[in-house]
């Protein structure tokens, strides 16, 4: 019975609360165990930065670097703040646990212990020992972080905007204080490699010059990438910027761009990084020109190596079959040679027939244009013109099909052209056949990239320029001066002198604009942004409407009419001009007195005739221009198919 006394009430357990009538076991089973503060809820899910540093046992500098490399950012808790501490930075507990298992964290700790040893040796004045230990400094790579953050190649392409902007920024900065020369050189190499790929694959779609710099947009494998290139001025490094954070971002973006460029170059059949020697760098004034030169050389060598490897494999197989079966019959080789000669003769004959058909089509265009100017268009004539246009389209279609078949059979297109999309090939045809020469006062970097990506050839003032100033093949001379210097008087007169904005506007509108608006010393038209949607904004600039009319062939005729009127006004004396104006006014008053129905019918008939004349002129112009290009192309190709 113990100390229990009969007749007394049993005492309650000490563990139970004084105000509760239930025991401790019953209370625990019903209400659960009482939790400590900070072990559940928002207080346990989100922790502050100081708590993260204390838990990981690292410095604040290393914690910031790990967060940047891992892609971990502070999070804002929903609802109330943990512990009612407003204005504090919080991190999720899962992100902190991911950092705790990061292999780079162990490297940081090893490096911290290593630096203690170096400082200890330096404090003892053992300089030889300290320099010896520097060779054994622990190193690390970020390859696993790139694969972890970007499991697919498309994810890496979509996240290249900030990477390219930062790389181009470091390439433009001077080497001062925390920014070392090695960092700027790496940035310049990466920017040059990226520019060489965009120029070779014709990936640049839009460009715009602003106060911040030159905006670019490229379409690579269906992903839209946009970045900014700073202006080529002397950059002043502000002292209130934390360059340690920027250098940490650059460290990761360098590895990311290396992965992306390796994949893009390998798709072209070129190894990355490009084998640029000191001779290549010394032979060109810019890294972009050197990269373009080496890339074109590597593409040609890669194509040649592939074809030679295939040829060697075929020859080895033929040799093995010959050794197994015996000697190869000479009759088979003669038959092959005869077949090759017949094919060459057939190709030459086909090219001659195409030239004849193109000549006939060109003569027919000239005859049709004369007839249209002399006679009015009737319903019967419209039917005949339709038949004529169908006849004109037949040789054009045949010539185009022959060119495409020849390129496929001969393999004249490079490895890059085979991987280019239809939009890229259209962009590459914009400046095809044009040669640009950039004057020394014009920044060459972004203009060279745009001209090459749209199929043009570029030269500049310098010894490393592939095109001389006096070259007769130059079609456009880019000058940014109020007047042309007297030294340009001895240059060929066949070239056009334009301002740099002409190249950007032509690339954005995908149309060769007239050079008169962009001449030297003239007031330039507005530089419109290609990213503004006029339909959403509800306003379309006047110059955009003018360019659309140029594309449709309307503005050119209006300009011709205005010029003809001005010429007529110059020939007529002032008194005669006044008399003609008075006569025109009398005629207009007489026409106003006529019936409204007759006026409407006349206006409609005039509009129809003008529209038909414009359509026929535009069709004849484009057909004539395309047939001329095909004619020149076939004449050049004809020498390749002469019979042996």
Q: Short description, anyone?
A:
The chain has 644 residues and is of the alpha/beta class. It has 25 helices and 9 strands.
Written description of the protein model:
- With 644 residues, the protein is an alpha/beta fold.
- It is 60% helix and 6% strand.
- It has 25 helices and nine strands.
- The chain has helices at 24-31, 42-45, 49-56, 60-70, 93-100, 103-123, 127-134, 143-149, 153-158, 160-172, 181-201, 243-267, 278-283, 287-325, 330-374, 379-410, 415-419, 422-428, 444-453, 501-509, 534-537, 542-552, 555-571, 574-592, 596-637, and strands at 46-48, 90-92, 204-209, 214-220, 223-229, 435-438, 457-460, 476-478, 496-498.
- The protein has a four-stranded parallel β-sheet, with helices on one face. A three-stranded antiparallel β-sheet has the order 3-4-5.
- A hairpin with a 2-residue loop joins strand 4 (214-220) and strand 5 (223-229).
- Helix 11 (181-201) crosses helix 14 and helix 15 (330-374) runs antiparallel to helix 25.
Highlighted features:
644 residues; three-stranded antiparallel sheet; extended; single chain; four-stranded parallel sheet; 60% helix; alpha/beta
Strand order of the largest sheet: 7-6-8-9
Instruction: Give the helix/strand class.
Output: alpha/beta
Helix run count = 25
- The total beta strand count reads 9
Shape: extended
> How large is the radius of gyration?
38 Å
Roughly how much helix do the residues carry, as a percent range? 55-70%
User: In what range is the share of β-strand residues?
Assistant: 5-15%
Overall average pLDDT = 77
Low-confidence stretches: 304-311, 375-392, 403-415, 565-579
Task: Calculate the terminal CA-CA distance, rounded to whole Å.
Answer: 127 Å
Summarize the main sheet. Answer: 4 strands, parallel
């Amino acid at each position: 019975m113990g100390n229990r006394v009969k007749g007394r009430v049993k005492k309650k357990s000490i563990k139970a609360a004084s105000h509760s009538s239930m025991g401790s076991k019953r209370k625990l089973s019903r209400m659960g165990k009482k939790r400590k503060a900070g072990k559940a809820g928002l207080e346990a899910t989100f922790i502050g930065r100081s708590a993260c540093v204390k838990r990981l046992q690292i410095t604040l500098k290393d914690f910031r670097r790990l967060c940047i490399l891992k892609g971990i950012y502070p999070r804002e808790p929903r609802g109330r703040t943990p512990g009612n501490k407003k204005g504090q930075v919080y991190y999720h507990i899962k992100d902190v646990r991911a950092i705790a298992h990061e292999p780079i964290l162990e490297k940081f700790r090893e490096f911290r212990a290593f630096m203690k040893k170096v400082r200890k040796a330096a404090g003892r004045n053992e300089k030889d020992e300290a320099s010896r230990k520097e060779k054994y400094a622990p190193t690390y790579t970020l390859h696993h972080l790139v694969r972890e953050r970007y499991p697919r190649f498309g994810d890496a392409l979509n996240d290249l905007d900030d990477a390219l902007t930062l790389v181009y920024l470091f390439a433009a900065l001077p080497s001062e204080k925390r920014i070392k020369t090695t960092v700027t050189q790496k940035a310049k190499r990466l920017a040059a490699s990226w520019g060489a790929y965009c120029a070779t694959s014709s990936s640049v779609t839009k460009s715009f010059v602003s106060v911040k710099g030159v905006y670019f947009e490229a379409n690579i494998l269906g992903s839209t990438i946009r970045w900014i290139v700073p202006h080529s001025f002397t950059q002043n490094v502000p002292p209130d910027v934390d360059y340690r954070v920027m250098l940490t971002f650059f460290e990761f973006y360098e590895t990311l761009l290396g992965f992306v460029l390796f994949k893009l170059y390998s798709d072209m059949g070129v190894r990355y990084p490009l084998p640029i020697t000191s001779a290549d760098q010394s032979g060109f004034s810019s890294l972009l020109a050197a990269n373009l030169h080496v890339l074109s050389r590597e593409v040609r060598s890669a194509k040649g190596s592939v074809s030679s490897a295939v040829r060697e494999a075929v020859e080895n197989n033929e040799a093995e079959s010959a050794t197994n079966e015996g000697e190869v019959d000479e009759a088979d080789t003669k038959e092959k040679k005869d077949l090759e000669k017949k094919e060459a003769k057939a190709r030459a004959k086909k090219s001659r027939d195409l030239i004849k058909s193109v000549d006939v089509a060109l003569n027919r265009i000239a005859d049709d244009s004369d007839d249209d100017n002399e006679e009015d268009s009737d319903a019967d004539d419209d039917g005949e013109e339709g038949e004529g246009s169908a006849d004109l389209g037949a040789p054009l279609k045949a010539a185009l099909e022959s060119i495409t078949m020849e390129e496929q059979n001969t393999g004249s297109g490079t490895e890059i052209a085979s991987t280019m999309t239809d939009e890229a090939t259209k962009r590459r045809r914009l400046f095809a056949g044009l040669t640009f020469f950039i004057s020394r006062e014009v920044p060459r970097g972004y203009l060279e990239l745009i001209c090459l990506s749209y199929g043009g050839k570029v030269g500049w003032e310098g010894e490393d320029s592939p095109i001389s100033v006096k070259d007769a093949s130059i079609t456009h001379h880019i000058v940014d001066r109020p007047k042309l210097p007297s030294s340009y008087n001895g240059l060929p007169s066949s070239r056009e002198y334009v301002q740099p904005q002409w190249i950007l506007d032509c690339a954005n509108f995908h149309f060769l604009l007239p050079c008169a608006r962009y001449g030297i010393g003239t007031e330039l038209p507005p530089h419109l942004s290609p990213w503004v949607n006029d339909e959403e904004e509800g306003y379309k600039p006047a110059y955009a409407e003018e360019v659309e009319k140029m594309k449709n062939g309307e503005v050119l005729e209006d300009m011709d009419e205005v010029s003809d009127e001005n010429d007529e006004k110059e020939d007529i004396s002032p008194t005669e001009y006044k008399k003609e104006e008075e006569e025109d006014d009398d005629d207009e008053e007489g026409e106003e007195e006529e019936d409204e129905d007759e006026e409407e019918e006349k206006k409609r008939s005039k509009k129809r005739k003008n529209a038909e004349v414009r359509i026929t002129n535009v069709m004849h112009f484009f057909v004539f221009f395309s047939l001329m290009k095909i004619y020149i192309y076939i004449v050049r190709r004809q020498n390749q198919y002469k019979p042996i």
